[in-house]
Specification:
The protein is of the alpha+beta class. The protein has two domains: 78 residues, S16 Ribosomal Protein, Chain: A; 55 residues. It has four helices and five strands; from the N terminus they run E-E-E-E-H-E-H-H-H. A five-stranded mixed sheet has the order 4-3-2-1-5. Strand 1 and strand 2 form a beta hairpin. The radius of gyration is 38 Å and the shape is rod-shaped.
Length: 154
């Protein structure tokens, strides 16, 4: 008979409360169990001492006779110092998916084209100002002398 140490849900709707139980692996989640060895209340603060209550002696006994804990219960056992849990590493989990990568590439291209357009508009504006300045300095010297005389007479 395969035995597992797992959580059995209790509590009302949206108010979960779990018992840590030793049960036959074939029985249903909230069904018949062999022994209750603790409880877990996820509604309490993470640093509350009553959040996880575990009978470590019984847990050690069941582990010694071959009971397999679920992932969540293995975390509790590791925190209690009963059993070391191997850390998991999935470096691909944090990477964005295919569509998100495509959207990011499109966004980068759009920003790049906007920056190029702004740079081109700025260059065009500078060229226009430069031609206006050249046109103003190309006035004939006679006209400049007349303007200078007019301003001096006043």
């Amino acid at each position: 008979m395969a035995v597992s140490i797992r959580l059995s849900r209790g509590g009302s709707k949206k108010r979960p409360y779990y018992r840590i139980v030793v049960a036959d692996a074939r029985s249903s989640r909230d069904g018949k169990f062999i022994e209750k060895i603790g409880s877990y209340n996820p509604l309490l603060a993470k640093d509350a001492e009553n959040r996880v209550v575990l009978d470590t002696d019984r847990a050690k006994h069941w582990l010694s006779v071959g009971a397999q804990p679920t992932d969540r219960v293995a975390r509790f056992l590791d925190a209690a110092g009963v059993r070391e849990r191997a850390t998991r590493s999935n470096p691909n989990k944090g990477k964005p998916g295919e569509k998100a990568t495509e959207r990011a590439d499109e966004r980068a291209e759009k920003l790049k084209s906007q920056a190029e357009a702004e740079a081109q508009a700025k260059a065009d504006a500078e060229a226009t100002v430069a031609t206006d300045v050249e046109a103003a300095t190309d006035t004939p010297t006679a006209e400049r002398e007349q303007v200078a005389e007019a301003t001096s007479e006043q």
